[in-house]
Every structure is written in C-alpha cells, then in structure tokens.
Amino acid sequence: MNNATYLILLLLCFYITAGICETPNGASLHGTCVDAENGQPIPDVLVRAAAEKLTQVYPDRKFEHATATAADGAFSLTIPNDPQTYYAFSLMALHPQYQAKRLRHEMSPGKSKYQLGKIALRRTLFLHGKVSGAKNVAGRVVSLRMHTKSADFFRAAAPIENAAKIDTTGNFHFTDLYPIEYTLTISQDGVIIAYVASINPQKQTQIAIRLPKMKTLRGRVVDTQGHPIAGAQVYATRHAETPHGHSARLATAQTNDVGNFQIQVLETEPRFLSLEISKKGYFSRIYEHVDIGKMPSIIPLEKGVTVKGRVALPRNLPSDAQFTVKVFPTDIRMEPNLNPLALHKPLLSRSFPVTASAFSISGLFAEKYTLYVVGDGISATGIDVNAAVNTEARFIIADQPLTTLQGQVLWADTEEPVPNAVVSRAWYPWELHPFDMSMTLDRFEVETDTHGKFKFSNLTEARYQLHIRAVHAVFEATTQRYQRARIHKQVAIPAAGTTYRIYLGKQDGTPFAK
User: Fold this and answer.
1) Residue 15, phi then psi, degrees to nearest 5
2) At 443, phi and psi to the nearest 5?
3) Among residues 114, 23, 26, 36, which one has the least CA distance to residue 73?
4) Helix (H, G, I), strand (E, B), or coil: what is residue 313?
C-alpha cells in the first residue's frame, strides 16, 4: 500500500468514524497499537472492526466500523452489541510501514466494553539487491509478485505486486514487504531478462542476481500448404516451479510478411519453458518443455472452419443488449452441478449485438459441436452443428420465456424462518465463461432475508439442485455463551417457477453438524 492510498483510506476512516462508528447501545473497543520491537506507540494506524452475526455463514466479510490511532497509539470505536444478533467481532490493524494484523474475540452478553490491551505490530520487511552481468543495467525494472497461498492473510492488506528501478550502481531496493514468498523478474523494453522463482524477505534481506544469457529463437510460420502466415503472434512463457508461484511471459514477437520471426528468450530449463504461436482464424500451436536448440524451424498452423447462424430472440430486449454464442464439444453432458471443480466450460464464447441477430464463429476444427445461445433475458437454447459439412447459416429460435426459482428456508423444529442462510444453486455449462474459476462461482448463491426467503431470477426453465448452509445458535446458560452449529442440506428442484419450502433441522433428518 503506497502512502497516497493510505492517506485516502485514512480520510475515509475519519468519515466513517463520524458516521457509521457511532453505534448507539453498542460495545466499545479500546486498545493501543505499539511497535513489536521497541514497544513505542504507533499513530495513524487504520483500525477496522466487523461485528459477526450469530446466524451469518460468512460472518466477517465487511469491516464497516473504523477509526485511527492517536499520537499515543490508542484507539476507541463502537460496534453493535445486540446479544441476540451478534456473536463475535474481528479487528484489523493496517499501516503502510507495518504488517497487517487481525484479531478475533467472542462477545459476551451484557458486556459493553472490551479492553484489548497492546496490539503489537511488526514492521514490514525490506529487500536489497545487486544486479550484475551486463555493462549498463540502470533503469531496468525489477518486479516482485506475491505467491498465491490462500493461507497468507497478509494478502488482505499487502500489495500483490511491487516494482523498483535499478540505479546506476546496479542496486535496487524494496520496502513494505511481508514475510511471504514472491516471484522476482527483471525486464527491459518488455522482455524479461531475469527470473527468480521464489524470494522470502523474512529469510533473505539481500540478494545478488547475475543476469543469465539470452538465447535467440528463429522460425517460420506457415499454413498446411506451406504458405507463409504474416502477423502470427509468438509468445514465450516461463512457467512456475511450485503450485503457488507465478508464470511469466518472457517475450513476444510477430511474424513478418514472409512468416519469419525472431525472439530473444531468457535461458531457461526446457521443463519450465513453453512457446505458443497463434493467429486469428488458425488453431494455436503450443510447444511444451521447449529446448531452444531443438525447436523446429518450420511451424505449421492449421486454418479453422467458420460456423454461421441466425437467431430469433425475445422482442422486449434492450437495443444495446447482446447475445452470446457458446461452443461445446458434443460429448459434454449438460447436467447441473454444485461442484466448483467440475467445470465443463465452453471452448469458445462470442458475443453479438441483438440488433444484428446473425453470428459467425471462426477458428473451429472440422468437427461436431453444440452451440448455446444465452444472454440477459434470453433462455438458453442449444443446437448441434457439424462444422465439417454445415456451410450454410443455421437458424436458432431462442425466444422461450425465462423463469425464477424461489423459496423459503424454515427450521423443521419450530417452523421459524432461517435468515442469513446461504443458498447456492447448481449451474449449467452454458452459464459458465471460458475463464471461470471456482472463486468466481459465488454469483450462483444468495442469502435468505429476515423471512428466510430467497430468489434466483433470469433462469432457463430446467431442473436445479440447491445447497443450503445455515448456522443454528443456542444460548447455554451454564457458559453464558451461544453455541453455534453449521447445517448443510442439498435439495433437488424438479422445475423452476414454483415457490419451495425447505426445512432444516433434526426433525427433517438433517443432523446438526459443526
């Protein structure tokens, strides 16, 4: 986080302090932020708090209450304190020169003041480097990119990428780093000339980098008849050595009028190097485990076929709307799925304006495909095509009405509504994008309202599966605390368009599971 960003956050904090933080009948949090090494108070620490609801499955997504520490490092802020609603609170301390710290405390009914004492913050780390191996390295850019370990809660506050320039003496310097692993690269004019797979500034504060050799890769790109292909893109990629590391595109090039290219590539072990050659209208060719000295000098690309079509869409669509044609292999089963890892994604996805009603998709093999027409206000409609023989435009009628899937979640023992339950619905492959990951599938879930009701709109008429997650809280007089249990249930919905009542609890046969 740079200083300008921090100042903006701090100003926002004072705005929030004057508004949201003034919670009547709330619990007050008090503490002091100090330096972990010398015990000195730290002013201007951004302190944010979130009150966790008893029935919330995702309890602390928002830190809506915030303040800043004074000159003596002390802070005080107020959060909601209704014992029938809130169970615990999380607190985050942020400062550009210190590592972010997160605390969590359970709340006690009737308690309105929490003394958190001294919160020790560790300073962010630094990394000093020296670059050699070339006569003039000044001005070249050194980049650090944080590894993707989900367990590193530092990612909530630390910048994902950092950059610095090499000075005239070959040195570079980074500050405000965290005790986690980074991938380091050095680039010049868009070409990466050095790559270090993993650096942890907690384990090494200084690093010496000698620039490795660059190798020249030459080749010629042609079609299946041996004719040169001009304007083909060539990409050289250095792949990560660990699951949490980062790949890096080392260099790019483009073929000239006679199909020739030349690209400077960082000396890399073949097992980490790949080469991709692509051109619109042709199938990309990817070479894995590239040994530059053994690459073929002639690289053929196969030209793809084109599928054309026309669509009949609903009449009430906005004039600026679009419809999307998604391409699947014919052997993909169009079944609903709740498993984030079972992603039957489309091979291609192309969007077109609804005012045109015609589409053209190029770059396909001469094989059989299933095309689906989808979009806002458009019920998913599929059609099978054989790209090898279908040269005429196919006509797809996609004007069927959409529907909703709605219901109410109730406790089986009391028939009381279940608020804040997370309802996830199964998705169909036609609802996915080629770039979808499991983290992007939260768009298929909603939370129940205070009446336990939920609703999914703009759906294609089909059967769905639901996964309901809820929290059941019971107050125990002996411990004077709430005991929370998580409950999961899956339900098969035969058809949308009907309001469903879904019961959770022991009487329903669903165990209370933590």
Assistant:
1) -65, -45
2) -70, -10
3) 36
4) coil
pLDDT in tens, 13-45: 444 444 444 445 689 999 999 999 999 999 999
Total residues belonging to the chain: 514
Phi-psi region of 441 (alpha: psi -120 to 50; beta: other; left: phi over 0): alpha
Q: SS3 for 241?
A: coil
Tally: H helices and E strands in the chain:
1, 35
Q: pTM for this one?
A: 0.73
Residue 54 identity (one-letter amino acid): L
| Identity of the amino acid at 466 | L
Distance separating the N- and C-terminal Cα atoms of the chain: 37
302, 289 contact by CB (below 8 A) = no
The H-or-E segment that residue 351 falls in is: strand 348-353
H/E stretch holding 195: strand 191-199
Using an 8 Å Cβ cutoff, are 11 and 48 in contact?
Answer: no
pLDDT value at position 390? 64
Phi-psi region of 239 (alpha: psi -120 to 50; beta: other; left: phi over 0): beta
Q: Where would I find the beta strands (DSSP E) of 412-478? A: 422-425, 445-447, 453-459, 464-476
Residue 254 makes CB contacts below 8 A (sequence gap 6+) with 231, 232, 233, 234, 261
Q: How far apart are CA 197 and CA 184, in angstroms?
A: 7
Q: How much of the chain is in helix, strand and coil states, percent to nearest 5?
A: 10, 50, 40
Cβ–Cβ under 8 Å, residues 400 and 377: no
